[in-house]
Specification:
The chain is an alpha+beta fold and 689 residues long. It is built from 25 helices and 26 strands.
């Protein structure tokens, strides 16, 4: 009779909305309702009388279950079962959290016949619990977080919200995020934001907001819509981080990339870009434009007699006078040293009229630059020579700049403080350049090049390495500076064999020094030209030189410039290949190129080299000091060693040392010297220590 009743009960439990089954005293299934069968993915024939619930528990759940029930143990009550959820494996390999409850079943006077269990699917409960945990984690995160209702009223904020904005939870709750508005974004910005949220359920981007104290800051903000089961918006969740510091650093580096640090004028890179745009525009408009190449007369004498500080003040005044002389829409740039360029656009559609306007402006500039320069307690006089090229159509920006440069040299030869147009008679200047090219070929063949070495020292003035600097020992002109022949070598591609000779000679010298009592640990830094680096066999060439010379590759450091990183993938691939064999890399003249953080993070360099143009103005211009501090801090953040070049005074060295730069190069320690003088210098310094 009891078993018959159990059968009716089984039939009843087959239709309930929860799992149910009965087990024998040893745990074998006696009955199972349809829902449990569906969960497990088996038929009744496969389970009843053959399998146990414990067969389907995960190992961890089996251990929990075993602690409360043994096959021959006493009957279970609901209070005896584990409180924590159990986990079952299904036939398809997935798992499911369950809650298990027991009811005593039929039994005889001596022992239990069966026990009935109820099983509840805990999947939804677990998701809710996970959601609560995630929500708690979000509100404990360092990102500012706020939750609003569907109308945008703030319901909740976290501690980071208060830290960033200055508004407490009491002040924020009941307000809308408009309380933070800076006024910098227009209506179309917010329309695009809400259109994105309506279309995709989220928006993220930069937003300028205002703190409680009135300070404007920039944040990276993410907003997400929260939907109910019907798909309707119930809330919005915003999360933001304060990126003001990094934004300012990026803006500073971006400005540095395209502007001269001293005068804040566009640099050569930006000027050539604008010149290229002007060439395209003039082809369409048929208006003549003009380019001026401006070079100061006898400026070197001011630098030599009164120092770079005075020279820099004169250069800044020159830049201001040039700005004042040109029209709005024209461009003034500092190319290098005391060389400036000016771009005049849309002068006239008639050649003679355009030439007359350009000449008039040129005469105005000459008059302005020849005026006295009052610096401190002394007045200085400095005129300029100008080369001018008119163009309505041109091949390249570089060609135009070259023509204006040649015209400027004609102006110098004519007595200075004058202006000259470029014309075909200036081909004589090109002939002279060709003659220099021939002499460069002879210099290679006759081994007229020499390597000079400038020490690189640490904060204890110990010489750790040296930069290799090229000199041309000309049979008639004596020692020629690379500034006079390297640009032509680059243009004519002679830099390729010259650069190969420098690398080969440097490696050979490192090998010789392996037996030197003092120089055996010296690291040599070798400048690599863009043309040389971008040769397809550059990696193979350097690898072969290292192998043939038998040197320790860690003692070879290649200095590259920011302008080389045009093809990022090619650059990184080559650098990584050489780094694998032990060769190190330094970024030379840092701060004078495009200075992109994203580029730096990808390049496998070991050292950043602060350009001497910044070092020179330490203590003279606050902006340059800030730039130097920024570069040092950024280098440390990226785990790069940092070295400053052009260190000439103890004050500069002390400033750099105080701000974390521990490696130096410059006249304060030594000028570039021939190898015998360098070795003598090393010996003397080693004897002192």
């Amino acid at each position: 009779m009891l078993l018959a009743i159990e059968g009716e009960i089984d039939s009843l439990f087959d239709r309930v909305p929860f799992g149910s089954h009965t087990e024998s005293a040893d745990g074998t299934f006696l009955s199972i309702n349809a829902l449990v069968l569906a969960w497990l993915g088996h038929t009744r024939e496969e389970l009843i009388g053959k399998r146990k619930l414990s067969d389907f528990l995960t190992p961890q759940s089996q251990e929990i279950y075993r602690r409360y029930r043994s096959e021959n143990g006493p009957p279970l009550s609901m209070a005896d079962l584990p409180l924590e959820p159990l986990e079952i494996f299904r036939r398809d390999g997935s798992s499911m959290p369950i809650s298990l409850s027991a009811m005593l079943g039929a039994h005889s006077a001596s022992h239990l016949l069966n026990t009935r269990f109820m099983i509840i699917d805990m999947t939804e409960s677990r998701l809710q619990m996970n959601g609560q945990n995630i929500s708690a984690a979000i509100f404990e995160s360092p990102s500012g977080t706020f939750v609003t209702d569907k109308q945008g009223t703030i319901l909740q904020v976290n501690d980071a919200f208060t830290t960033i904005t200055g508004f407490s939870a009491i002040e924020a709750i009941g307000q809308t995020p408009r309380m933070l508005s800076s006024g910098r974004h227009n209506l179309s910005f917010y329309e695009a934001l809400w259109n994105s949220i309506k279309a995709t359920g989220r928006w993220q981007g930069e937003m300028w907001n205002r703190r409680k104290n009135g300070e404007i800051y920039v944040e990276w903000l993410s907003i997400s819509a929260v939907l109910d089961v019907s798909g309707s918006v119930t809330n919005y969740v915003g999360s933001f981080t304060d990126i003001t510091s990094s934004k300012n650093a990026l803006d500073l580096l971006s400005h540095m990339a395209y502007h001269d640090a001293l005068t804040q004028l566009p640099n050569r890179r930006l000027f050539l870009d604008r010149l290229g745009q002007a060439i395209s525009a003039s082809r369409r408009s048929q208006f003549f434009n003009a380019i001026f190449f401006v070079d100061l007369d006898n400026f070197k004498a001011i630098n030599d007699a009164f120092g770079h500080e005075t020279g820099d003040l004169v250069l800044m005044e020159v830049a201001q006078r040039l700005r004042n002389a040109v029209r709005e829409g024209d461009s003034v740039a500092r190319l290098s040293g005391d060389e400036f360029a000016i771009l005049l656009v849309d002068l006239d559609s008639q050649h003679l009229e355009a030439a007359a306007k350009a000449r008039n402006l040129g005469e105005k500039i000459l008059a302005a630059l020849s005026q006295t320069y009052p610096v401190g307690q002394q007045d200085f006089h400095c005129s300029a020579s100008i080369g001018l090229e008119l163009f309505q159509d041109a091949n390249t920006a570089s060609e135009l700049l070259q023509h204006a440069d040649l015209a400027m040299y004609q102006s110098k030869k004519s007595g200075k403080n004058t202006l000259r147009f470029f014309d075909q008679t200036m081909q004589a200047a090109l002939a002279a350049r060709f003659s220099l090219e021939v002499e460069l070929h002879e210099a290679l063949d006759k081994q007229q090049f020499r390597l000079f070495f400038q020490p690189q020292v640490n904060q204890h003035r110990e010489t750790l390495g040296a930069e290799v600097l090229l000199r041309w020992e000309h049979p008639r002109h004596g020692l020629v500076s690379p500034l006079e022949f390297i640009p032509l070598a680059e243009e004519t591609r002679l830099i390729l064999p010259i650069g190969a000779w420098v690398l080969e000679t440097a490696c050979a010298q490192l090998k010789v020094w392996e037996g030197h009592p003092v120089a055996h640990s010296i690291q040599l830094a070798v400048n690599v030209s863009p043309l040389q680096f971008h040769q397809h066999d550059f990696v193979a060439h350097v690898t072969a030189l290292v192998a043939a010379s038998g040197i320790n590759p860690k003692r070879l450091k290649l200095e590259i410039t920011e302008s080389m990183v045009l093809d990022m993938e090619d650059t990184v691939t080559k650098m990584q290949a050489l780094q694998k064999i032990g060769v190190n890399f330094a970024m030379d003249d840092f701060g004078t190129g495009f200075s992109s953080l994203s580029v730096l993070t990808r390049l496998p360099i070991q050292q950043l080299k602060i350009d001497q143009s910044f070092v020179r103005n330490i203590g003279l211009r606050d902006a340059d000091g800030v730039i130097v501090q920024t570069i040092i801090a950024m280098a440390h953040t990226l785990d790069f060693e940092v070295i400053a070049e052009g260190v000439e005074t103890e004050a500069q060295r002390a400033f750099l040392d105080k701000n974390g730069c521990k490696h130096f190069q410059g006249y304060l320690f030594s000028r570039p010297v021939p190898i015998d003088e360098f070795e003598e210098l090393l010996t003397v310094r080693s004897e002192r220590t």
